[in-house]
Specification:
The complex is a heterodimer of chains A (362) and B (60). By secondary structure, chain A is α+β, with helices and mostly antiparallel strands. Helix content of chain A is 53%, strand content 12%. The two termini of chain B are 19 Å apart.
């Protein structure tokens, strides 16, 4: 490789790393506990709880009424369903409140009483928000996406630079008896090159996840918009048909699929006119892929089954591949160890840059 | 005394094998449950194993 080309790659590696290192360190550090968020929530939020009654269950309209009666003025946004207890989670929003501020209420489906939270401990929510958008909303997400692209640039340029550095050293060599700079360069090269595939997968899926808002907005503006052209005004709360009947109708349209959540009219993931009832498959892969059935919120009729386009499927698959929560505890432990290795790669890269500057000045 | 430079195969052979094992592990655990959850984790852990191996045998 020509010296000039090599200098170009070195420049790309140095600056893409320097610009992003602090943010990537924040993402690695906050991501570490998030890998185990399910387990941590279970420990922090565990309460012995039993439903008020066995067998009998309220219908979904009664559950929704029970939740909204405790949050007067709230507009329902989402409803999701616990898998291992008869609990329905109602998420509502205050129309006059700040954007993105939701009220989350787990409701015992046998009584309509509140049930204890099993997810979303404040500390974990704080870490997730910091990891997702640094409390800056969409600009924060997109900025972190840019940092993810910097990471990809740093990894690709690092692989290119690996060859000239290793042309006289067998794979895995660590010159432990040399000065600290040479030793840490070997650690940096070794740890960096063996984690390339994982870092690229986590980095690229992280970038895709930062595009969730524009991806969903584009989906609503294109594929879903065609379904709403017959309407001229959003459906009012008082005009809405039975939610329970809408979910039953959606289940008939997608037999064999598992109910995941309902997005109410006007919320993200739906239109102004439909209940969007989301289902997922029951195989390991299709469990991460959702298909919504759109139910006309005025009439309760099935408007469409709208399989998600490729870019929404890509977004759906990017979530497990970023968080590593799809292969049980062993995979989570490996994920966490790789995260720690990445922290060492970032720290050693910073050290090497500082050490080189210091020696250049001396 | 100067040593001969290593070729690309010698430089990138082991990292490519580790990357391939990692990708198969990541995809396998996503595509199937049960055995593949464990196998996928083990394949992904090959990268960690190679670090341990290098630190144990290649320090000089």
């Amino acid at each position: 490789m020509k010296t000039r080309t090599l200098r170009g790659w070195a420049w790309a590696h140095r600056w893409s790393s320097l610009v992003s290192t602090l943010f990537l360190l924040m993402l690695c550090i906050t991501g570490l506990p998030l890998v185990f968020s399910h387990e941590i929530d279970e420990v922090l939020l565990h309460q012995d709880w039993k439903p008020a009654a066995e067998g009998r269950q309220l219908d979904l309209d009664q559950v929704l009424d029970a939740a909204l009666s405790r949050h007067p003025g709230g507009v329902p946004a989402f409803m999701s369903f616990d898998e291992d207890r008869p609990v329905v989670n109602v998420t509502s929003v205050d129309p006059g409140g700040p954007a993105g501020q939701y009220t989350f209420q787990p409701i015992d489906r046998t009584s309509g009483d509140p049930a204890p939270l099993v997810a979303g401990h404040p500390v974990m929510e704080f870490l997730l928000q910091l990891h997702t958008d640094m409390f800056l909303g969409l600009p924060g997400m997109l900025f972190l996406g840019l940092m993810g692209l910097m990471l990809v640039t740093a990894v690709v340029s690092g692989v290119v630079l690996y060859a000239p550095f290793m042309r006289r050293l067998p794979f895995g060599t660590v010159r432990a008896s040399k000065k600290a700079r040479a030793r840490w360069l070997d650690y940096h090269n070794l740890l960096g090159v063996v984690t390339v595939a994982w870092v690229l997968v986590v980095g690229v899926t992280g970038v895709v996840n930062t595009l969730a808002v524009p991806i969903i907005a584009y989906w609503k503006d294109t594929a879903l918009k065609e379904l709403t052209q017959a309407y001229d005004a959003p459906v009012a709360l008082t005009e809405r048909s039975s939610l329970d009947a809408a979910v039953r109708r959606a289940k008939e349209a997608l037999p064999g699929m598992q109910l995941q959540f309902v997005a109410f009219p006007g919320s993200d993931y739906s239109t102004e006119h439909h209940y969007a009832v989301f289902f997922h498959g029951d195989t390991p892969l299709t469990a991460h892929l959702t298909t919504p059935a759109l139910i006309d919120a005025r009439t309760g009729e099935l408007a469409a089954v709208a399989p998600t386009p490729w870019y929404v499927k890509t977004l759906s698959l990017s979530q497990p591949l970023h968080f590593g929560d799809y292969g049980g505890l062993p995979l989570k432990i490996v994920w966490a160890l790789l995260d720690l290795v990445t922290i060492v790669v970032l720290g050693s890269g910073l050290y090497l840059w500082l050490a080189r500057r210091r020696s250049a000045r001396a | 005394m100067s040593r001969k430079d290593l070729g690309y195969r010698a430089i990138f052979g082991a990292p490519l094998v580790i990357a391939a094992l990692s990708i198969v592990g990541l995809a396998g655990a996503l595509l199937d449950d049960g055995l593949w959850d464990s196998l996928g984790s083990a394949l992904l852990a090959a990268s960690l194993g190679s670090i341990v191996w290098a630190l144990a045998t290649r320090r000089r």
